[in-house]
Write a structure and sequence with these properties.
Layout (H helix, E strand, L loop, with lengths): L3 E2 L9 E9 L3 E4 L5 E4 L2 E9 L4 H10 L8 H6 L3 E8 L6 H12 L1
Antiparallel strand pairs: 1-6, 2-5, 2-6, 3-4
Length: 108
Amino acid sequence: MPAKNLPSQLPAQRGTYALELALPRATRIQIGKLDAFDFPRGYYVYVGSARGADGLYARVARHQRAHKKLRWHIDYLRAFAKPMRVWYSTNARDDECVWANALTNCAA
C-alpha cells in the first residue's frame, strides 16, 4: 500500500505497518528501564504489527497521540519525534521481521 500522510484513515484490519518519524534535533532519550540513548536528528522508521481490535487504525492512532502510557520502546522515541507517514499491508501474515530486515538491508 502506498504511504499515507497522517492522520489518514486506516483500515480497522490486522496488518503490518511502517511508521516514519522525524526527530527535529539530536536528543538523549531514556528508553524505559533500558539506558539513555543519543538519537541523532533525522528520520526513523518503526515497523510493527497490528493484531488487536480495530487493527491498523487503532495501532497507528495510538502512535499519533501525544499523551499516553509509555508501554513500548517506540513510545519513548515518539514522545520527541513527529509521525510523518505510514505504509501498511493488510496481509494476514505477520511480516514485521521481513519488513524490518528489508529496511535494514536497504540502509546498509
